[in-house]
Amino acid sequence: MRIDDLDLTAPELIADPYPVLADLRAQTPLAWHPPSGMYLAFGYHASNALLRDRRAGRLWRDRPPAERFEPFNALHRHQMMENEPPEHTRLRGLVAKAFARGHVERLRPRVVELADELLDRLPSQGGFDLLADFAGPLPVAVIAELLGVPPADRELLRPWSNAIVKMYEYERTDAVETRAVTAAAEFADYLRELATVRRARPADDLVSHLAAIEDGGTRLSEDELVASAILLLNAGHEASVNVLGNGMVALLRHPTELDRVRAEPSLIEPAVEEMIRYDAPLHLFERTATQDLTIGDVTIRAGEKAAALLGSANRDPAVFDEPDRFDAGRDPNPHLGFGAGIHFCLGAPLARVELQAAVTTLLRRFSRLELAEPPVVRPTFVLRGYQEVRVRAG
Ligand code: HEM
Asked: 10 Å Cβ neighbour count for 169?
């Protein structure tokens, strides 16, 4: 395929992007993509270099018109992921400080409990939808509990978050935008209220800690607190849901690897890393050049945009032996699934603990687990995942 013909919204690409990405990566590690008006980094080294280059940043621009998009814009303007130093350093430092108190490892037994509770609710015979019944609700429950969102309110979170993240795709209707703005406004109001309650009566949760943190006299403003909590809630589950869905589909399609993981529990850690590498939940992250920069033999001019294609980077044969093979024991596995550079995923330790605990629990509870039907892919390229994964279990 010629890069000019690459359509990031094409259903055939979304169904299985890897052969097309391999073809383009073999032609060029980094090239201009006219349809999206930005450079695309297909190769591992090019993606890594782009993410680490301080002359390429995440520069947030409010989406016009301001009157319509303000609730959506405000959530992004005030959070670390859409800012560069010095704002990024300050916001990330303050949130990391509150986050560190959570002692992520301490959460492992709690994640197992939550996973068991979800599996207890399933019918004793037959099958279930791995996504709707397990992979979807589990990460939401974990991050909601960490932040201190009461259990009764948890079902509000996924629809809000789903509506907001649809804005990161390349094909959006007016209805999608309206739903995203409404969700952003409702989500922010909800968090503002929760923060008020926790300020008055602090608990041992992240919203209380975020409200309390001080760092050399600077604190999070209320807008920053709301935006940070929503970032944690969204980033904290959208990717984990899809790693669990995509990763379990990959494992079930490789029964020998599944048997290996069952037989050798120490393989759970490399198997989870392989799930993140093999079928990336997040395929594309944009940057804007603040100065001219050169990667390989391509010069990106100040003001131009470029994107790292993480799913493509993670299948680069220059770095991974037999990249299209799912190898539960792959070592080394320097995948870029959590990004690289200053925006490297703040939640990576939590994601690892919850994914390891989730997969371990699933395999413990079912000695037989197999796909009952071909899983249904979500129609989006940037956030890659399944809509439905029917499994037979026993
Ligand atoms: C397997 C699951 C996850 C994956 C694959 C993932 C992936 C990523 C990636 C690729 C980035 C970098 C974005 C960029 O460079 O532009 C990122 C950033 C981030 N992630 Fe994750 N993430 C996961 C889970 C989580 C969890 C559980 C949390 C929090 C509870 C979280 C919180 C964040 C935050 C706050 C950032 C922004 C960091 C910054 O801008 O400095 N993520 N994540």
From this structure: 17
